[in-house]
Write a structure and sequence with these properties.
alpha/beta, Rossmann fold, globular
Length: about 170
Amino acid sequence: MTRDEVLAIYSARYAATYDDTFLHAEHYEEATAFELAWLREHMPPGGTWLDAACGTGWFLSQFPDVDRCGLDLSPAMLDIARSHNPQVSFYEADFREPQPHLESRCDFVSLMWWAYCYAGSVPAIRKVIANVAAWTKRRLAEHRVRRSPSCPATAGSRRSADRKASAGRPRARS
C-alpha cells in the first residue's frame, strides 16, 4: 500500500473508534491480552522501547514506568496516542522507511497487530526488518513468531501445527 492509501484508512474518524473496535471488542480481547502479556514477558528491564506503528498508543500507556516512544504514519492516531501518553515522544513517520534519528536508540522494538502487512512484498518486509534492526541498540535483532489466539495461522501449539503440516504424508519406515 502507498503512504496515501494507509493514511486514507487511518483517518480521524477511524482513529476515534480504533481502541473500542480492535483492542477492547469481545472478538479481540483475547488477542489484546496475549499481546500485552507477550510485551510484559519480553520487555527488557530498564530498556528503551519503540512501538513502531503504535497507533493510538494504548499499549504504550500500559507501561508508564518504561522509557518508551512511538512511531506512526497517521497524524490522527498520533493525536490520540499523545493524549494517552503525554510524557512519551512520538514520531510521525513510516516504519517502512529508514529513520536515521532512531538508529541504535532502542533496546526493544515492537511492530504489532499485523502492521507489517502494509509492507506489501517480501523485499519490503526485509526492509522493515532491516529498519527494526537498525533502530535496536544491539545489532542482534530477534524475530519471534507469536502464536496469537486470534490468528488462525499462528493459533495452537507448534506441535499441533507440525502434526497438521505432516498429515497425509507417508511416514518413513524404521
